[in-house]
UniProtKB/TrEMBL annotation:
PROSITE patterns the UniProt entry points to: FHA_DOMAIN (PS50006)
Top-rank lineage group of the source organism: Bacteria
Boundaries of every FHA domain copy: 69-118
Lineage: Bacteria, Bacillati, Bacillota, Clostridia, Eubacteriales
Spans traversing the lipid bilayer: 12-32
Gene3D superfamilies in UniProt: 2.60.200.20
Keyword annotations: Membrane, Transmembrane, Transmembrane helix
Name the UniProt record assigns to this protein: FHA domain protein
């Protein structure tokens, strides 16, 4: 009887090891897939900090930022995030004189840069953390590294 239980635990342990290895391989695959997508995006983008599977709504891993990008819940925005804590027209990121600025559009819950709520347009720097609703991004500007 003890021998059967020992064999069952042995196979269960091997199965857990294979599941763990499968999870790591899947994470590596998704990371490589994200790198390929990012390289075709351009040099300035927002990179999601949150884990996508923990958010109750759909959000992309990264968003390209051309000269101007609006963020909000409404379908009229360039970046649409269906988070209930994000206003219909929440914020805008604009490029002025080769620098990017973020402005809160009088949203209900505010826009935060580096954990500080913004009230006026401020200049974004490479590595700044932007929090809108439940979603946090890192601002990546490869030209200003």
């Amino acid at each position: 009887m003890f021998n059967i239980i020992s064999i069952a635990f042995r196979y269960l342990f091997i199965l857990l090891i294979y599941l763990f290895m499968f999870g790591i391989i899947r994470m590596i695959y998704l990371d490589i897939k994200g790198i390929r997508k990012r390289s075709s995006m351009g040099s300035t983008y927002l990179k999601l900090i949150n884990r996508r599977d923990e958010l109750p709504f759909k959000v992309e891993e990264s968003y390209s930022i051309p000269s101007s990008v609006s963020i909000g819940r409404s379908n009229k925005n360039d970046i649409i995030i269906k988070d209930p804590f994000i206003s219909k027209n929440h914020a805008i990121i604009e490029k002025k004189h080769n620098e990017y600025y973020i402005e809160d559009l009088n949203s209900s819950n505010g826009t935060f840069v580096n954990n500080e709520q913004i009230f006026n347009p401020i200049r974004l720097q490479h590595g700044d953390t932007i929090t809108i609703g439940q979603v946090s991004f890192i601002f990546v500007n490869e030209l200003s590294k």
